[in-house]
């Protein structure tokens, strides 16, 4: 089986997993008009933190920028049920021509929402991109309380009727691509995708599973799930959604969370995450499309040592495709699980390099 055949089979297998939980799909993709969110939902008990790094994204100085800024709020119906209503926020500039422009999908981290990303959306819109953000599953407009996401993760473990960790949002992003390529103002060959932390995982998987995402920049999201289990480096990732693993520990009759608990949880809520869909298999199949992976060298949730094999295989894939310069891995020295201004600038430059005419 050739490499392209292997990639095609992996994508087909992933789609089968996505469809395995009784997903009811509308015959047509429906877009409904929405309204701006005045009081965004932020979850968890941690402080929101600073937007300083996002605000450092290169922004073109434009007279009357606010007057020229076009904001669209809409909902895409990606499947039946409450969580099948995907909230979308899009920012762009009014123009006098009808040229198709590049689009960038930007994805938020855990417990935040699309409105948190507005500094990035405005920066890219100022540079003639159509900037797009969505609420991931059980976040933002898809959450009813500050614990909705945690409750969904636990329900997934206990009932098994949903996949709120990564997979369900990847389904939404595949349907989002259906919508974006149909728009008259977007060049369907120039759609990029990026995200931070959980959003970085979403960007990584969406680009791997949907070739319409032409450029991918996952930030502090790519990790080796199998490597973490085998090398006892799973604690920080587990700690980010600890109530889920505590519930699983109790159900499995364990005194402590151990690697058996971790493996069973991943297999239940995201089948194949630590097996056939792990980084060594999904990162390389993004080739030959441009891909920039950015992590912190000291990130305990995404240990760079766990990516050695994935990076090596990806480099080989891009070299075999005749475009080794289309792949880059950056591990910012001295940085843990944090998106920095340097990362934001590197992502901006990468998009400009590959999406601007």
From TrEMBL:
Domain of life: Eukaryota
Gene3D superfamilies cross-referenced by the UniProt entry: alpha/beta hydrolase
Pfam family, one: Peptidase_S9
Biased composition (Polar residues): 40-49
Name of protein: Peptidase S9 prolyl oligopeptidase catalytic domain-containing protein
InterPro entries membership: AB_hydrolase_fold, Peptidase_S9_cat
One term of GO molecular function: carboxylic ester hydrolase activity
TM segment ranges: none
Region (Disordered): 36-56
Occurrences of domain Peptidase S9 prolyl oligopeptidase catalytic (ranges): 168-222
């Amino acid at each position: 089986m050739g490499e392209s055949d292997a990639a095609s089979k992996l994508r087909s297998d992933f789609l089968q997993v996505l469809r395995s939980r009784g997903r009811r799909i509308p015959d047509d993709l429906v877009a409904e008009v929405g309204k701006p969110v005045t009081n965004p939902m932020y979850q968890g008990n941690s402080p929101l933190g600073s937007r300083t790094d996002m605000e450092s994204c290169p922004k073109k100085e434009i007279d009357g920028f606010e007057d020229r800024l076009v904001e669209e709020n809409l909902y895409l119906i990606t499947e039946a049920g409450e969580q099948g209503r995907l909230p979308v926020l899009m920012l762009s500039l009014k123009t006098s021509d009808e040229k198709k422009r590049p689009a960038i999908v930007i994805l938020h981290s855990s417990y935040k929402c699309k409105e948190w990303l507005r500094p990035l959306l405005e920066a890219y819109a100022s540079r003639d991109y159509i900037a797009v953000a969505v609420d991931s599953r059980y976040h933002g407009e898809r959450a009813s309380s500050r614990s909705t996401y945690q409750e969904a993760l636990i329900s997934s473990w206990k009932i098994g009727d949903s996949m709120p960790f990564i997979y369900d949002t990847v389904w939404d992003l595949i349907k989002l691509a259906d919508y974006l390529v149909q728009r008259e103002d977007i060049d369907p060959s120039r759609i990029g995708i990026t995200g931070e932390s959980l959003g970085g995982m979403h960007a990584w998987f969406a680009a791997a599973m949907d070739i319409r995402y032409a450029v991918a920049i996952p930030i502090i999201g790519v990790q080796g799930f199998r490597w973490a289990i085998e090398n006892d480096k799973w604690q920080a990732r587990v700690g980010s959604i600890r109530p889920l693993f505590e519930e699983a520990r109790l159900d499995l009759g364990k005194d402590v969370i151990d690697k058996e608990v971790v493996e069973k949880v991943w297999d239940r809520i995201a089948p194949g995450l630590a097996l056939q869909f792990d980084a060594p298999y999904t990162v390389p199949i993004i080739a030959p499309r441009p891909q920039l992976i950015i992590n912190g060298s000291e990130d305990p949730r995404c240990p760079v040592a766990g990516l050695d094999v994935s990076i090596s295989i990806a480099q080989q894939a891009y070299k075999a495709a005749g475009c080794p310069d289309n792949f880059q891995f950056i591990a910012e020295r001295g940085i843990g699980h944090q998106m920095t201004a340097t990362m934001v600038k590197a992502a901006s430059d990468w998009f400009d390099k590959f999406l601007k005419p």
